[in-house]
Amino acid sequence: MTTLPPASPKKLGLVIDLDTCVGCHACAVACKEWNEGGDFGPLLDQDPYGKEPSGVWFNRVHSYAVEQDATQGASRELTVHFPRSCLHCETPACVTVCPTGASYKRAEDGIVLVDADKCIGCQLCSWACPYGAREFSMERGTMQKCTLCVDRIYNETLDEEDRQPACVMACPTRARHFGDLGDENSAISKLVAERDGYALMPEYGYQPVNRYLPPRPRRDGCGTSTDPASIRGGESGQNEILDRDKLPGVLRWLDRALSR
Amino acid sequence: MRPTFSIILFTVLSGAGYGLLFLLGLSLTAGTPTEIFVVRGVGGSSIALDPRFGLGVALATGFLLTSCGLLASLTHLGQPWRAWRAFSQWRSSWLSREGIASLVTYVPMAAIAILLFALPDAHLGLRLCGAALALGCIATVFCTARIYASLQTIRAWHTRYTAANYLMLGLFSGALSFTAVHVATLANGGLWVSAHAVALVAVLLGPACALLKRAYWRCIDALPTLSAGHATGLDLLGEVRSFEQPHTEENYLTHEMGFVLARKHSRRLRAIAFWLLLLAPIVVLPLTGWIGLPIALLLCMSGIFVERWLFFAEAKHAVMAYYGR
After folding, report:
1. CB–CB contact B88 A56 (8 Å)
2. Structural contact between residues A131 and A84, judged by C-beta atoms closer than 8 angstroms
């Protein structure tokens, strides 16, 4: 059923500390490894050992340079590594747009999952998600996404301390925390309150459960909050870079013809 | 967004098909003459024509256009044999509603075919089925448009123009196709409405569609772009620049949502679509008469194809902000 279940008091999710993340990609690799053999796997690749490998990953780690306003003195840059995965939203559009009921939100703990046996591979859910949480498997013809390691966290064959998502277990700097964000007294809810954890792009109204902890200011003052200057530019395409060699033949011809 | 050929083909063909069937439904609602009429042919010979012939050809053309479109849309799916599952989630999903509306619209189509050829005297039945067909066509095209218009993540689609564009362009191409069937089957006089009247509708719709597209393009050009700073929430700390991508090669997201070609050439492509939509009916038809009808139809369909390609290819998805693109 792709209509959403009533809001559950239990909201399992992740808290990601952008202060301590070092961008090592261990979370992404551990996730890929666990889910390759997990209940929701495999996570197949195309051309895995070839020239242009690609495939499904549930976790992607971006790296950004945050430049502090030059007017405050010399220009200083802060490096921020940013792991991006499913935020297990409370009212996710990826679930409601699904025409088959394959995409669903669990009533008991809020985890958003895809039933691979029902998915028709229309890819509309990936269009509906602003966070890029869903990736389509060309090999399987169905959509795949982060399961919050639902096959680990309730897995009684694992030791109690191992019943956590693979990404959380793998993180060498403990930048990833797992828990119930619906419970105010849980350790991770306290962490969010203490460190001013924030949700990504709340304006969409999908109410992400996961929270990000902002980088702490550096000793030299780098990383202190300034005014947001978030929206700029236009969708004109004039400043974008197009790699013509990567286009298929017909489009390469089209680009050449239109560039004349 | 990557312009997928199957989806473009689906929306263009089914748009024309539902436009044609909508007009057919309307003309049936207004009444169906069933008397055999005589057309004077070349050299004084006369041919007796059954008006049901023209109606039947129009119905079959609409059926073929919409069915080919729907079949084309199936090829977009990763698991096309499971497509039947898409009829289940009409409570929340516009895609599911579109599937149901398209299926339900086949019912009046079949009923009209049966009534026309088996029970030609059932005038009331034909009128009711005609009305049901017209409603089904509007509902299906509206649901198609809503699939795109309801996606907040793609701002160029999340506008009030999207539904109007789909309905108007479907009606425009449908009106030209209807005129073509009308003239080709010599149904003039057999239908309540003359070919001239439908052609006039098409002639008026062409410029209307072109102007609507121009207003849409103006609207999407004014949309602000999402930055990496906003997407990550790091804009509170300063200017955010992506210096390393999460992966060295393309992935599904950058392949599907990082399509740049159309925005690079948007000016030229928009001009092509605009002039094709504008000129197809108002220049070709009055200059050449009915002989130019296939040319007008070809220009119109090409214009809509370019327009639809641009609709998909120009649109930018929010997730690309994370990639700094």
Report:
1. no
2. yes
- Are B269 and A138 inside 8 Å of each other by CB? no
8 Å CB contact of B234 and A246: no
Structure tokens at B217: 């393009």
Closest CB to A99 among B78, B96, B247: B96
- Coil/strand/helix, residue B201: helix
CB A188 within 8 A of CB A197: no
- Rg (C-alpha) for chain B, rounded Å, is 23
Distance from CA of B303 to the nearest CA of A (A): 16
Give the closest residue to B162 by CA, choosing from B174, B150, B175, B145.
B145
Helix residue ranges, H only, chain A: 26-37, 93-96, 124-128, 150-153, 166-170, 187-195, 249-259
Beta strand A60-67 pairing with B239-244: antiparallel
Size of interface A-B (CB pairs under 8 A): 271
Q: CA nearest A81 in B: which residue?
A: B244
For the residues of B281-315, what is the DSSP string, one character each? HHTHHHHHGGGGHHHHHHHHHHHHHHHHHHHHHH-
In eight-state DSSP terms, residue B43 is G
A33-82 confidence digits (pLDDT tens): 999 998 998 999 999 999 999 999 999 999 999 987 656 566 678 999 99
Inter-chain residue contact B253 with A100, CB threshold 8 Å: no
- For B56-100, the pLDDT digits (tens) are 899 999 999 999 999 999 999 999 999 999 999 999 999 999 999
Q: What residues form DSSP beta bridges with A177?
A: A15
* Nearest alpha carbon to residue A213 among B322, B239, B236, B238: B236
The runs of H, that is alpha helices, within A38-175 are 93-96, 124-128, 150-153, 166-170
Q: Residue B49 phi/psi, 5° resolution?
A: -120, 140
Long-range contacts of A234-237 (CB under 8 A, 24+ apart): A234/B221, A234/B222, A234/B223, A234/B224, A234/B225, A235/B155, A235/B156, A235/B220, A235/B221, A235/B223, A235/B225, A235/B263, A235/B314, A235/B316, A236/B221, A236/B263, A236/B266, A237/B260, A237/B262, A237/B263, A237/B264, A237/B266, A237/B314
State the Cα angle at B190 between B300 and B58, rounded to 5°.
40
Which parts of A143-260 fold into alpha helices (H)? 150-153, 166-170, 187-195, 249-259
User: In this structure, what DSSP letter does residue B61 have?
Assistant: H
Residue of A200, A81, A227 whose CA lies nearest to B237 = A227
Q: For residues B282 and B150, give the distance between their C-alpha atoms in angstroms, rounded to a whole number.
A: 34
Q: Select from B318, B322, B258, B255 the least CA-distant residue to A81.
A: B322
Phi then psi for residue B267, to 5 deg, are -60, -50
* ipTM field: 0.91
Residues in chain B closer than 8 A to A63 (CB atoms): 242-244
